[in-house]
Every structure is written in structure tokens, then in C-alpha cells.
Design goal:
Number of domains: 1
Number of strands: 4
Structural class: alpha/beta
Strand order of the largest sheet: 1-2-3-4
Number of helices: 2
Radius of gyration: 12 Å
């Protein structure tokens, strides 16, 4: 039996979603850093897609993708050259995913 479909939420920032994110896939314009990933995990998201913010020093813009994967939460970051960080709704169409991490 296929898994139950998940609600997909889009937001400009992971800080702009609340309880409705629990169990949802959240596509947002936040960087994929540790703090944004921490917030996603705290919200109980089923999966999260962030912006890589140019990746940055020491891969700071995508560090949260690995953090979530360690928690068993699928996550990815889109390339900032293919989707501007704001508005978050631009993250879905025409984006190149630089760092997908599926939980195993």
C-alpha cells in the first residue's frame, strides 16, 4: 500500500510556520543551516527543502540537511542560483537540488 500523501507547505522562512508543519513537507526560503534544520525538526516536519544560500563557509548553508538526515528526516537544499531565497514559493519550480539527503 502506498504511503499516505503529505501536506506540502511553502513559506518564506521556516520561522513563519507553526503547528501546521507537523507531519508536512515544508518547502521554504530559509538557508539550510543548522538553526533552520533544528527548527524544522522541532516542528516535526516529515521532510524539508531549504535554499543553499550559496553554500557558504564550511558548508554552513547546507549543514542542516545532514543534521536532519541523521534524525531520519529527508531534506534537501536547492541551489540559490536557480531559486531566490524569497519568496519561498519560488523554491519548487525550476530548482536544481544541490544536496538531497534521504533518510535511511
Amino acid at each position: 500500500m502506498p504511503p499516505e500523501p503529505r501536506l506540502i507547505l511553502t513559506a518564506d522562512s521556516i520561522t513563519r510556520v507553526g503547528a501546521e508543519a507537523n507531519g508536512a513537507v515544508v518547502v521554504n526560503g530559509s538557508h539550510g543551516g543548522l538553526y533552520a534544520a533544528y527548527l524544522a525538526a522541532k516542528l516535526g516536519v516529515a521532510a524539508a527543502i531549504f535554499n543553499d544560500a550559496g553554500i557558504g563557509r564550511d558548508r554552513a548553508g547546507i549543514a542542516g540537511v545532514d543534521y536532519l538526515a541523521e534524525l531520519g528526516v529527508p531534506a534537501a537544499a536547492v541551489g540559490n542560483m536557480t531559486a531566490p531565497a524569497l519568496p519561498g514559493s519560488t523554491t519548487l519550480p525550476n530548482s536544481a537540488y544541490r544536496r538531497p539527503r534521504l533518510a535511511t
